[in-house]
Automatic annotation (TrEMBL):
It comes from Phytophthora sojae (Soybean stem and root rot agent). Residues 348-382 form the RxLR effector PexRD54 WY domain. The lineage of its organism: Eukaryota, Sar, Stramenopiles, Oomycota, Peronosporomycetes. Its main location: host cell. The keyword Iron-sulfur does not apply. Residues 1-29 form the signal peptide. The keyword Ligase does not apply. InterPro entries: PexRD54_WY (IPR054463), RXLR (IPR031825). GO terms for cellular component: extracellular region; host cell. It is found in: Host cell; Secreted. Belongs to the RxLR effector family. It comes from the Eukaryota. This is Avh158. Keywords: Secreted, Signal, Virulence.
């Protein structure tokens, strides 16, 4: 039945009396036990506010945790038998189980001992658990017992019994009126506060505090804050989240940390400085603590988090500083989620501020990269940003910016070296734009496309089409006309030899250039026709020396010539 609320002092006195009665009832069975283990201590006052809050809630519910503990201790006191307890202790010593830790519960001897106690308390199994706790607690004390129980709970075969014994231990503490702070000290968690999260019994403490209807993570966070700066604690929690043994508790502590900041209405900028992120410089995005700040800003306003983070960055760092931060984040191979998240919003913000492609190029320090330009991951970001703006000729815009910092020759060399990079497609497009920039002669363009290096195999080169297109476009090459390409090639290779090369290449289907080769052949035939060259002249010339390639020229020109209209002589 539920206990009615009674004044705190009377309740604690009642708990003390029952606890003492229990201690007396089994004192003969525990000759080696420190009497302090069984004397109920009054709750400490350093958690007064927390305790008051807990008691008020308990009154509202009608039954609080301490009253449940009081009832549990009373029942246990009635069920435990001093003689049976003596027998349990004696068997424990005879089996030398005190030497079996930490794998106590997995020991066959422990199973023998446990079954013996369960047999003696066959009608009251909960008393068997209590008897085991009395022996184990008397042997090692609360801290060591908690460690043994935690270890046993990690194993499926011993999890159930360990959980039951822990529950008995908790009822004992509640009956003794132990506060969260009492339990913290009892478990000796204060002795190694710097490695608190690695201590297995911290889980025991968390479980106990939860039974007190108190948020254990708020209290634990306060303990940790006395040994760490805000930045240091954030880093500790991040590291702990990488370890599966501490991942869960670290995650909840981080949530408690964010919730506390939010409850205190801390601004994004305040936490940025609290975590010392304003002192990181261009290594900002390499600092893992930045992720904690990101989580907090997102918690404050998820919809506008990007804008809020950018606003804070701009308070502490100029655009000239922010740009290189993204470069460092990517080139170091440790780009944070914040860098990836803010990159494109930053570019959008710069565009809204009136910054053009040339400004962004220098803000990313791409003008300082030298022959490593295309290896810088920010180059691809810059190129993508220009492309997404919907400009009519983004490649032309990019090339004009690059040419302000690099010569055509150096750009060409860098582009040729970039064929293996992930952004090679962009570089290839820019190379075409570079090679096709206006003002070059037919011969200069031929060399830029490296066609002069191909010798007589130039008809198989993939750059042939681009070269022909360039030199036949009046707005591009100097002294360009319809026959510029064929005239240049005829001078370079002799026009009848060129005709044979074109015919053979057309049959061979060289390098996928058939369309271009047919265009060149047609241009050559047009030139001959305009110059009055007849099929008979071509046939006579081609048969002077035996060359199978000449037959194709004869047939192709005959066909071309017949398709031309007959011109009446004046």
């Amino acid at each position: 039945m539920a206990f009615k609320a009674i004044p705190a002092q009377r309740r604690y006195c009642a708990i003390l009396l029952v606890a003492l009665a229990l201690a007396v009832s089994i004192s003969d069975a525990l000759p080696t036990t420190n009497s302090k283990t069984f004397v109920a201590s009054a709750p400490s006052l350093d958690q007064a506010v927390t305790q008051t809050h807990r008691h008020l809630r308990a009154y509202e519910d009608g039954v609080n945790s301490e009253e449940k503990g009081f009832e549990g201790i009373t029942n246990l006191a009635k069920m435990l038998s001093p003689n049976k307890q003596k027998a349990a202790d004696k068997l424990f010593r005879n089996l030398k189980l005190q030497k079996e830790t930490p794998d106590l519960f997995g020991s066959p001897k422990f199973q023998t001992w446990m079954k013996s106690i369960q047999k003696s308390y066959k009608k009251t199994p909960e008393a068997a658990d209590a008897a085991m706790v009395v022996t184990l607690r008397g042997q090692w004390g609360d801290a060591e017992l908690a460690k043994v129980l935690q270890s046993a709970m990690e194993t499926r075969s011993t999890n159930a019994i360990a959980a039951r014994l822990e529950d008995v231990q908790f009822k004992k503490w509640i009956g003794e009126g132990k506060t969260a702070d009492d339990a913290f000290n009892l478990l000796k968690l204060d002795e190694k506060a710097n490695d608190l999260l690695k201590n297995p019994v911290v889980k025991t403490w968390v479980s106990y505090v939860e039974k007190l209807d108190v948020n254990p993570y708020e209290l634990l966070l306060a303990k940790l804050e006395t040994h760490h700066t805000a930045a240091g604690l954030a880093r500790t929690l991040l590291v702990a989240r990488q370890d599966y043994t501490t991942r869960s508790i670290a995650g909840k502590l981080q949530e408690a940390q964010l919730e506390r900041w939010s409850r205190k209405k801390r601004s994004a900028d305040y936490i940025f400085k609290l975590l010392q992120l304003d002192k990181e410089g261009d290594k900002l995005f390499k600092n893992p603590v930045l992720g904690t700040w990101e989580s907090y800003v997102t918690k404050l306003d998820e919809k506008n988090a990007n804008e809020a983070m950018l606003a804070v960055l701009k308070i502490h760092y100029s655009d000239e500083k922010i740009g290189p931060m993204f470069t460092v984040a990517k080139t170091s191979g440790s780009a944070s989620s914040v860098a990836a998240r803010l990159e494109h919003p930053l570019l959008k913000a710069w565009a809204n501020d009136g910054k053009d492609a040339a400004d962004v190029f220098t803000l990313f320090r791409l003008d300082k990269e030298g022959d490593k330009l295309f290896e810088n991951p920010q180059f691809a970001t810059w190129a993508y940003d220009i492309s997404r703006q919907g400009r009519e000729n983004p490649n032309k815009v990019m090339l004009s910016v690059m040419k302000a910092h690099y010569s055509d020759e150096s750009l060409e060399k860098m582009m040729l070296k970039a064929t293996h990079l992930s952004n090679s497609a962009i570089v290839s497009q820019l190379r075409s734009e570079l090679l096709l920039s206006p003002g070059k002669t037919v011969d200069e363009a031929f060399q830029l496309f490296k066609l002069d290096k191909a010798g007589k195999n130039f008809l198989e080169d993939p750059g042939l089409g681009s070269w022909v297109s360039y030199v036949t476009t009046p707005s591009k090459a100097k002294k360009s006309d319809e026959f510029a390409a064929i005239s240049f090639l005829a001078d370079r290779f002799e026009h009848f030899e060129l005709a044979k090369m074109l015919s053979a290449a057309k049959i061979k289907n060289s390098g996928g250039n058939n369309r271009v080769i047919e265009e060149l052949q047609t241009l050559q035939f047009e030139k001959w026709w305009e110059d009055g060259v007849t099929p008979r002249i071509i046939s006579k010339t081609m048969t002077k020396h035996f060359d199978t390639r000449g037959l194709g020229v004869i047939l192709d020109y005959e066909k071309f010539y017949k398709a031309k209209p007959v011109v009446d002589p004046l």
